[in-house]
Write a structure and sequence with these properties.
Number of strands: 12
Radius of gyration: 22 Å
Number of helices: 3
CATH superfamily: Galactose-binding lectin
Distance between the termini: 21 Å
CATH architecture: Sandwich
Shape: globular
Order of helices and strands: HEEEEEEEEEEHEEH
Length: 235
Amino acid sequence: MFKFGSPIFLYLLVSLSSPVFALSSGLINDFQSSTTEGWIHPRTNANQPRVESANNNHFLVLSAKGGFGSGSRLLGINKSAPWNGQVDSDVTGISMDLSLPPLPSEVPIVTDFELSVRIAVATGSGANMTWYASTTPHTLQYTVTESIIGAAFPFNDLVQVSGSAELTDVLNNITEVRILHATSPNFRGDAILAEFRVDNIRATSAEKSPIPVPAFALILLASIFASLSWYKHRA
């Protein structure tokens, strides 16, 4: 049996009192493992997300065949950890690096082609899902050399496109995250013959105030004093 003040007891106390979040700030997916890290297409088809490499760097490629049927829409989804569950209160959005494959120099630049990349997040399952999608997209256009843009998708830019749950409820229990091309906010993605690259998907956060002290930190301080007292009595 663990005694109050013993190191094992204190470790368990601090561990159990510390909040656990599915999505916390920092780097989430950089694809250096050469795997898609849980990103898939929602339907079985030949246009599943894949990992490619260039200049000693790995990145995710999302593609679509256009037209109709399975694989026609340009999107990737993730239902696996850490993309499901509660979002840390410090996290204010999701950011990533986006680019189009560079065109060979002999190929004329297609000036009227562009992709509108957004994110969508959901809670619930099946017919009971509520979806929020980015109001403001990030635009990708072809260039001779690859042009990588740092794209930020703040949660306060999300708009409800399906369902009835409040955004706070969605962020308290995310069940799916999507990256997609859509000319207007939606969670399905648009049908198009195209592909784009995604890398360094991160959960971003606002700067933390140095003044507030989390409750579990107070418990940690108390446990330190209790531990010192425990060792003193053992001496």
